[in-house]
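Researcher: Go.
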Amino acid sequence: MRILDTIDDELIAQLRRDHEFFWLDATGLTPADIQRLGILLGLHPLAVEDSVKFGQRPKLDAYGDTALLVLEGGVAAQPEDENEHPLEEIHCHLSGDFVVTLHRNPSPDLAALKTVFARHTSTRSEQYHVYKIIDVVVDSFFPILADLDEEINDLEDAIVSGAGKRELAETFRLKRLLLRLRKAVVPMRDVFAREIEVIADLAGLEADSHDYFRDVYDHLIRITDELDSYHEMVAGCTDLYLSTVANKQGETSKQLTIIASIFLPLSFLTGFFGMNFSWEVGHVLVGPWAFFVLGLGTMAASAGLMWAWFRRKGWTRSDG
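Model: Structure:
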């Protein structure tokens, strides 16, 4: 299999005349280049129009001897919850004579696959090479999932340690990211579940004894399941955040209640002795002992007794 990085009209025409299978992987082509490539390869006008506009939903459209497979590849970044561009749209034009992959930004995964193909001359079938290209695009989601797993675990630990606005913002960012990834993966899973035989039945595409595309479908199911489980974990982080905040509020309310309860008898004592009854002033509140014993002493004793009672009930212990 020949591997091309640019549109070489003469070379492509020669390869097509010789019926030599080739892979053209192009990045950032202009609309004019895509139109020229469509004429050179005999692509259907609707397939060319989709590749000019991009912004397509994952799908598989068959046009006679050619087909357009629109995929979404994952773009890993650190941290994933702040990844502004987690997806890369990739258009695969398939035929029995060629496979063309078009994308707006460079794809490290496809570049690594080209290196592998170039170093290891293989006698594998054309169908196998198509499978490997699709498989690399699909498997690009696994590094993202691995990073998300670590970040969700770190987020749970951070919420338990002390829930704040930062943790809440990270939770919502992760939710939005997981929804974007799921909207990209589920349509691809549906395509491979219903219509993948279209690729295997393309005229001129050398078949293989193995059903490679079933492996791609299995990977998509696994990715979907992990995204669903991560979404549930993030929803659990939201519940954990709300529970932690409620516990903090409950702990604060309990502390304020204890303080108010301690000051309740103090307020009674100071109010009672501050009424200045004539008999009390003349017979009881006489001398310094009345201030220290009856005044400060009874207040200290009441506060100490109430604190001891709270401790015996277990109300002074922290729930954390």
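Model: The chain is about 65% helix and 10% strand.
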